[in-house]
Design goal:
Oligomer: single chain
Pfam family, one: NIR_SIR_ferr
GO molecular function, one term: oxidoreductase activity
CATH architecture of the largest domain: 2-Layer Sandwich
Number of strands: 9
Protein name: Nitrite reductase
Number of domains: 2
Strand content: 15-25%
Organism: Pseudodesulfovibrio cashew
Bound molecules: iron/sulfur cluster
Keywords: 4Fe-4S, Heme, Iron, Iron-sulfur, Metal-binding, Oxidoreductase
Helix content: 25-40%
Length: about 220
């Protein structure tokens, strides 16, 4: 059994998996986008090192599994970009770039949101979901920050969670532009950052302070 100190020395993107001496590595796939070149690289690495295969995770990432410890660092070198590579997790559905139901560009908005969130220092981890239409395949209603596209603009959601204590996010605004949506998200996060307890996720925060206090902060800012 490896000690916690050893685990903390593992390269970014790597983690222990089931089975003694075996590890997994997460290929970096921002917003679920994977290029043909990246697929080629992943395929070549899997074959070269005789790995059992890959797994597409619930968070839209490709995980190479069953990597023996003595091959771990070489696998990472061959793969190139691994791990999150971003401060806060954002997922996005295909949106109107390729989904026939999409009414807004969730991929582009997801990228903008990811960039925008880099400017925050929050008390707990934050997950966001951006969807190109109200069907919310990007899980917008169960993420800390959710954006769901409609023909009139974005619906902005706050305080959702899909964990053990599921919570549906509250609506902060409807029918707003890209810029307005980011401003509302920023106002909500400023309020959250100032008033949340350490490690308190947005869902628990909203339950404690009440959504009216969040709305007041958002609209009064
Ligand atoms: S949320 Fe809408 S736009 Fe996005 S994948 Fe689902 S159906 Fe398509």
């Amino acid at each position: 059994m490896k000690t916690q100190e050893y685990i903390e020395t593992l390269p970014k993107g790597a983690c222990r998996s089931r089975g003694e001496g075996l590890y997994s590595v997460m290929a970096r796939t921002p917003l679920g986008d994977v290029s043909a070149e990246q697929l080629d690289t992943i395929n070549a690495v899997v074959k070269e090192f005789g790995l059992p295969g890959v797994r597409v995770t619930a968070r839209q990432r490709i995980q190479l599994i069953g990597i023996p410890e003595d091959k771990l660092r070489t696998v990472i070198e061959r793969l190139g970009l691994v791990g999150e590579g971003r401060k806060y997790f954002v997922q996005a559905c295909a949106g109107n770039s390729s989904c026939r139901f999409g009414v807004r560009d969730s991929m582009e908005m997801g990228a903008r949101l990811e960039e925008f969130l880099n400017g925050f220092d929050l008390p707990a981890k934050l997950k966001s979901g951006v969807s190109g239409c109200p069907m919310s395949c990007g899980e917008s209603y169960v993420r800390d920050i959710g954006l769901a596209g409609t023909p009139k603009g974005w619906t902005v959601l706050f305080g959702g969670n899909a964990g053990r204590r599921v919570r549906k996010g509250d609506v902060l605004a409807k029918g707003v532009s890209d810029e307005e949506a980011l401003k509302i998200v920023g106002n909500a996060l400023d309020f959250y950052a100032k008033n949340a307890k350490k490690k308190e996720r947005t869902a628990r925060f909203v339950e404690r302070v009440g959504i009216d206090a969040v709305l007041e902060a958002v609209n009064g800012a």
